[in-house]
From TrEMBL, chains A, B:
UniProt-listed InterPro entries: MinE, MinE_sf
Name of the protein in question: Cell division topological specificity factor
GO biological process terms on file: cell division; regulation of division septum assembly
Keywords: Cell cycle, Cell division
């Protein structure tokens, strides 16, 4: 899991321990077209996440990189402490 | 982008060039609880994707890894050629 640690671990600035949710999307295109798929998914995936955790818009970082053959989207969310439910035994 | 190439490029078996959509979710937990967030998101994110591309269930690979402090989900989708719309000029 070290590749993820290095990939995802570079943006933490606050010394306080917080939960983070990070999403990486990559769309590899063999041919032409559909380069906008990732941008379509971005908003809807954020909506899905907001159904489960309360997201402070200031704590969301979005980075998009559209290459010729690969489009990538990185979403980094700092999860507010208050939205974490108590640990359940299920 | 070479880290993603190596991270994501290991499952291609077909010699035919195809589109692929790959999603990586990582939930870093500072404290206890909410280890099930990633599994909750899995189904709903797949629903979002299916709204935009037709997904053959056989072409979806899902891998989940729940560690003590980090839960990870990897979704790998091979996009059928037929679902790719013609390139538009928008």
């Amino acid at each position: 899991m070290s590749f993820l640690t290095s990939l995802f671990g570079r943006k933490t600035s606050a010394p306080i321990a917080r939960d983070r949710l990070q999403i990486l999307l990559a769309h590899e295109r063999a041919g032409e077209g559909q380069s906008e798929l990732i941008s379509k998914l971005q908003e809807e995936i954020l909506e899905v996440i907001k159904r489960h955790i309360s997201v402070d818009q200031d704590k969301v970082q979005i980075k998009m990189d559209r290459g010729a053959g690969v489009s990538m989207l990185e979403i980094d969310i700092e999860v507010p402490e208050a939205t974490k439910p108590a640990a359940k035994a299920d």
